[in-house]
Amino acid sequence: MKKIALILPRGEIMGSAVVGPYAIFTQANEFLASQGQPPAFEVQLVGCERHPSFEEGLFRVQPHRQLAEASGYDLAIVPGFTCEVGPMLSGNKPLIAWLKEQYEQYGTELASLCSGAFFIAATGLAEGKKCTTHWAYAREFRARFPGVNLLSDLIVTDDRGIYASGGAYSSLNLVLYLLEKFSGKSVAIWAAKAFQVDLHRRSQKPFVIFTNQNAHLDEAITRVQEYIEQHYAQNLSIGELASRFAFSRRNFLRRFKEATGNTPIEYLQRVRIEAAKRQLENSSTGIGEVMSDAGYNDIKSFRLLFKKYTGFSPTEYRNRYQI
Length: 323
Prior knowledge:
The chain has about 325 residues and is of the alpha/beta class. The chain folds into 2 domains: about 1-205, Class I glutamine amidotransferase (GATase) domain (Rossmann fold, 3-Layer(aba) Sandwich); about 220-320, Arc Repressor Mutant, subunit A (Orthogonal Bundle), CATH 1.10.10. The chain has 14 helices and 11 strands. A 7-stranded mixed beta sheet has the order 5-2-1-6-7-11-10, with helices on both faces. Strands 3-4 form a two-stranded antiparallel ribbon. Helix 11 (about 265-280) packs across helix 12. The protein is globular. The mean pLDDT is about 90.
């Protein structure tokens, strides 16, 4: 039997990241019992404070154990949170130390759901290992933990006892992955059907919403971004943009990458693809016209780039997401 600790950190924790995994693991035990098999999991809620509440007080949970008295688990699962990263990490230093100790001294494997990856990365245990988190946190995660191999396109990663999942409800895909790993595929398939979770979903790409990367202080680069966002359908080049905003080419490339995390061409592509996504969602315009409106004139290149950033062809994307 696998002994699992479902951690309740201090702060604004996602209620779904506690209730969902707890329900799936406990219901899996009931399914096994119905098949004449022994339970596979013992799940305990481990609190970092005596009466944790989350979702702005909407939920309150009574933990089975307090962090200081909890130990000896096969797996510890850390849920995601909904507030700023810095205060969550500084307010949960005892938890970070506990995770590190359990992994190193007792062989406890660690799993993070959504933004919970920040807690595990803060232990230093994820250095050089594959990890994922919600796509919206990817840039901050890379800035804080550059030594972690962040694969933010993936929904599930598994690397030497460190598991991670993508954001929000896609975290349940990691729970199904762990079910299959620890108790067999038949249990995972049953849970996927019972909880109506797509067992084979692998990528976060279709769910990414590209937002303007303007959380920086370089006003000149902000002006370039605004120009790209207003003129993305035009034939823009690095040289033209650098000249228009009085940069040398080399300085322009360096400052743009430092400010936004993308090269200018990557940024232009993402703005164009986001525009194409909106048009596919909200109109019946032909793919060729969508391509042209987004600033492309080569259908092959457009399809390749669209699939690179969304995981789907333009037609597949429209069939899934058209309003």
